[in-house]
Write a structure and sequence with these properties.
With about 550 residues, the chain is of the alpha/beta class. It folds into four domains: about 130 residues, 3-Layer(aba) Sandwich (Rossmann fold), CATH 3.40.50; about 80 residues, Methylglyoxal synthase-like domain (Rossmann fold, 3-Layer(aba) Sandwich); about 120 residues, Cytidine Deaminase, domain 2 (3-Layer(aba) Sandwich); about 120 residues, Cytidine Deaminase, domain 2, CATH 3.40.140. β1, α1 and β2 form a beta-alpha-beta unit. α8 runs antiparallel to α10 and α12 packs parallel to α14.
Length: about 550
């Protein structure tokens, strides 16, 4: 299986919810990406919400501790983050029926541990020892099974269903056809009110049919063309015919420039942690550039484990820092380049405090993104009419593929998810790094990943000091980073520098040394590595290789 199915747990803080989470830890097929519970638990991390009530014999899985608990009653919001849910809600039977049906109406499969639907005719009761096949009645579930054979996949391609609903949709002038339970109520109410279904409604429902069957056929096409012949062992991430479906969220006033038209689309199901699942709390409609830059900011900030702040301007970080809290992280990040931060995008991976909001309110920002805002922060920031406030659930999901449009074609690659830990560092100089230098190396390496090439970034004490990006020459990037630091009144003495690719010559390194840096982290791999290392040894500089390039055009 190339990717795990995204699982949500309803009633995650209770005993049964805890059991689900415990059983699913390190599961080969499933990954718990969403936890939902009562409104009183919503907004807390799972670890905070459960507190001392973890009752399982095994420790709470690390992967769920920092998941932000969602409100189980916000059905659409929860459903948008998962492929299916396990239900362990602790409610009355009628309440359980109601909420599980609401999730089902969003086309989210519900696997319930409750007995509320035990006698519901169209809800199968699965006893693994007796009828396990009842759990595999959806094409995606079939082909996601790592033991699925080609024959089994083919057998489960529906013929009659798509044919009948397509035919009905074609004849929508005379036929009403429904493919989403979410439309039942609208149709019933229209029949009650008017005695029939209007032509306009039948047409809209027909459109949904073709969207639905297109998505279904796309799954089949991608699956079949991802392998050679009928050999499932040859399946690849890149099918011969790649078909995707996105759903339009909004038409935009304009695109990257005012003379360009634009719209924003999102995936049918947005995994938790991805920007497209944002919830806008305040401010006017997001622009094309707002969303593009917000994605860059969010991807950068969520790569840090400590409280962090990243300020983005034109897709590049102009300041980034970690701290004890949102206020400290923001203060440090803003110092790096206050000029460029004007009109920027500010992202946090932690709650925005009142104290942080008070400082942010003194500058002009386009967008602030965070998993949550304190009430004190909202009281301040909601007063700024044009400031857009977004919340995005924390999560570790990544796009399965990165895509770049070219004239008449599409470049497709797997996302850059490579991580480097301290144990991966290869010290190549005579002088070994101190613990403080190692810490700054790791910080610098993480942020360099989100700066466009050629990248040189100076850091110290968990904050950026100078950023050089997007230059044709690495030497020029180093010079610009040093100039930026000087303009911000920040000394580079004793700093650490990171480069996203190797140094082909020592000239870029000379600029870094002259600026005052005492340590460098870089991929290595140049035929002149020995010459570069020799230069470091000559000037008493530390250098570590990662063996991984971060080059991003």
């Amino acid at each position: 299986m190339s990717e795990k199915l995204r699982v949500g747990i309803l009633g995650a803080t209770g005993m049964v919810g805890q059991r689900f989470i415990s059983l699913l830890e390190n599961h080969p097929w499933f990954e718990v990406v969403t936890v939902a519970a009562s409104p009183r638990s919503a907004g807390k991390t799972y670890e905070e919400a459960v507190g001392g009530r973890w009752k399982m014999d095994t420790p709470m899985p690390e992967g769920v501790k920092n998941l932000v608990v969602m409100n189980v009653n916000e059905v659409e919001k929860v459903a948008a983050t998962v492929d299916f849910v396990f239900s362990a809600v602790d409610m009355s039977k009628e309440e359980i029926k109601k909420i599980e049906e609401e999730y089902a109406k969003t086309e989210t499969p519900v696997v319930s541990n409750n007995s509320a639907h035990r006698w519901t005719p169209d809800v199968p009761m699965v006893v693994p020892e007796i009828n396990p096949e009842a759990a595999f009645n959806h094409p995606r579930n079939i082909i996601a099974n790592p033991n699925c054979t080609f024959e089994n996949a083919i057998e489960n391609i529906d013929i009659g269903g798509p044919t009948m609903i397509r035919a009905a949709a074609k004849n929508h002038e005379s036929v009403t056809v429904i493919v989403s339970p979410g439309d039942y109520r609208k149709v019933i109410e229209e029949i009650k009110e008017k005695g029939n279904v209007s032509p306009e409604t039948r047409l809209e429902l027909a459109k949904k049919v073709f969207v639905h069957t297109a998505h279904y056929d796309a799954m089949i096409s991608n699956y079949l063309t991802s392998m050679k012949g009928n050999d499932v062992s040859t399946r690849t991430k890149f099918p011969e015919s790649l078909t995707r479906q996105w759903v339009k969220v909004q038409d935009m006033r304009y695109g990257e420039n005012p003379h360009q038209e634009a719209a924003f689309y999102r995936e049918r199901n947005v995994a938790p942690g991805l920007l497209a699942g944002y919830h806008q709390l305040h401010g006017k409609e997001l622009s094309y550039n707002n969303i593009a830059d917000s994605d860059a900011a969010w991807e950068a900030v969520r790569s840090f484990d400590s409280p962090a702040c990243v300020i983005i301007k034109h897709a590049n970080p102009c300041g980034a820092a970690i701290g004890m809290n949102s206020e400290e992280a923001y203060t440090k990040a803003f110092k790096c380049d206050p000029t460029s931060a004007f009109g920027g995008i500010i992202a946090f991976n932690c709650e925005v405090s009142k104290e942080a909001a008070e400082k942010i309110a003194k500058q002009f920002a386009e967008v602030i993104i965070a998993p949550e805002f304190s009430q004190g922060a909202l009281d301040i920031l909601l007063q700024k009419k044009n400031l857009r406030l977004l919340t995005v659930a924390m999560g570790h999901a990544r796009n399965d593929l990165d895509m770049k449009r070219i004239g008449g074609g599409l470049l497709v690659q797997t996302p850059d998810t490579q991580c480097v830990s301290e144990k991966d560092l290869k010290v190549v100089t005579k002088l070994a790094p101190t613990s403080a230098q190692i810490s700054d190396m790791m910080f610098a390496w993480k942020i360099a990943k989100f700066i466009k090439s050629n990248t040189i970034v100076f850091v110290r004490d968990g904050m950026t000091l100078g950023v050089g990006a997007g230059q044709m020459s690495r030497v020029d990037s180093a010079r610009i980073a040093a100039i930026k630091a000087k303009e911000a009144g920040l000394s580079l003495e004793g700093s650490v520098a990171a480069s996203d690719a190797f140094f082909p010559f020592r000239d870029g390194l000379d600029v870094i040394i002259d600026a005052g840096a005492t340590a460098v982290i870089q991929p290595g791999g140049s035929i002149r590595d020995d010459h570069v290392i020799e230069t470091c040894n000559k000037y008493g500089m530390v250098m570590s290789f990662t063996g991984i390039r971060l080059f991003h055009h």
